[in-house]
């Protein structure tokens, strides 16, 4: 039995690169979509927020000397490209997805309208939220927290390259151990960078738990939604 009815999955743009230097690795995006399909077949309603770091990051080196707001808007457009790729791959895998953008680009994707997003979820469609929050100076982590709260998701699943939150960097310290669960307050006290500050504060205020897990571990998403000890649960 699934532990959740409705989830918000946060994917990083970098995750789509696979082993490539940039862009979208075909085999990687297909594998991710198949993991998502597996949980939708369990009757779970899935919404997704995806980053744009594989194409452009507003805070990265490529934007040096550029106005921060302009760079952030470029980053938002990169997330629209990733969302379209994700939705198209879902279509090829026999799923129905709807991309909703926080920035109006109506020839390409429909605008984000909350009641419509809720309707799509109830109909069993996967909703992909593009263009972050639609505002500069906010990350897609914050968009994930915001949309998660708006649609009444029971949990935000932050898919990363690491299979949870550790006491130290597991690559640098072989003694580092994974937290199975940790409270928001503990995570703050120990200065564990689970999400950026605004996103983390929003989830804590809305009592919206966060689960950090590795999207690169086959079957990890399924185990997370079944409530198994996979990744790290950050709770109130």
Description:
The chain starts with 5 loop residues before the first strand and ends with a strand. The chain has helices spanning 26-40, 68-92, 114-122, 140-150, 184-189, 197-205, 220-225, and strands at residues 6-11, 45-50, 97-101, 110-111, 126-130, 155-160, 181-183, 210-214, 232-235. It is globular, with a radius of gyration of 17 Å. With 236 residues, it is α/β, with parallel strands linked by helices. Helix 1 crosses helix 2 (68-92) and helix 4 packs parallel to helix 6 (197-205).
Strand content of the residues, in percent? 15-25%
CATH class, named Alpha Beta
Mean pLDDT, rounded to whole units?
Answer: 95
Separation, N- and C-terminal Cα atoms: 24 Å
**CATH architecture descriptor name:** 3-Layer(aba) Sandwich
Return Rg in Å: 17 Å
Count up the helices: 7
Q: What class would the helix/strand composition place it in?
A: alpha/beta
Number of domains: 1
Overall shape:
globular
InterPro entries: AceGlu_kinase-like_sf, Asp/Glu/Uridylate_kinase, Uridylate_kinase, Uridylate_kinase_bac
Binding site for UMP: 52, 72, 133-140
Protein name: Uridylate kinase
Organism: Roseateles saccharophilus (Pseudomonas saccharophila)
């Amino acid at each position: 039995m699934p532990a959740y009815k409705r989830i918000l999955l946060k994917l990083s743009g970098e995750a789509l690169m696979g082993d490539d230097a940039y862009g979208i690795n075909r085999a990687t995006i297909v594998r991710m979509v198949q993991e998502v399909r597996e949980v939708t077949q369990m009757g779970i309603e899935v919404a997704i927020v995806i980053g744009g770091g594989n194409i452009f990051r507003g805070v990265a080196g490529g934007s040096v000397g550029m106005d921060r707001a302009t760079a952030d808007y470029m980053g938002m457009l990169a997330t629209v490209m990733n969302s379209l790729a994700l939705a198209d791959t879902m279509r090829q895998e026999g799923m129905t997805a709807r991309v909703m953008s926080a920035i109006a680009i109506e020839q390409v994707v429909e605008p984000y309208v909350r009641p419509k997003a809720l309707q799509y979820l109830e109909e069993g469609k996967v909703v992909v939220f593009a263009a972050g929050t639609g505002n500069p100076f906010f990350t897609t982590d914050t968009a994930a927290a915001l949309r998660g709260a708006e649609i009444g998701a029971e949990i935000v699943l932050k898919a990363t390259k690491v299979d949870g939150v550790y006491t130290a960097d597991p690559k640098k310290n072989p003694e580092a151990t994974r937290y199975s669960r940790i409270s928001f307050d503990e995570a703050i006290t120990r200065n564990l960078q689970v999400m950026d500050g605004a996103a983390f504060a929003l989830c804590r205020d809305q009592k919206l738990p966060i689960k950090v897990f590795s999207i690169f571990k086959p079957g990890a998403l399924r185990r997370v939604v079944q409530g198994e000890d996979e990744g790290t649960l950050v709770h109130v």
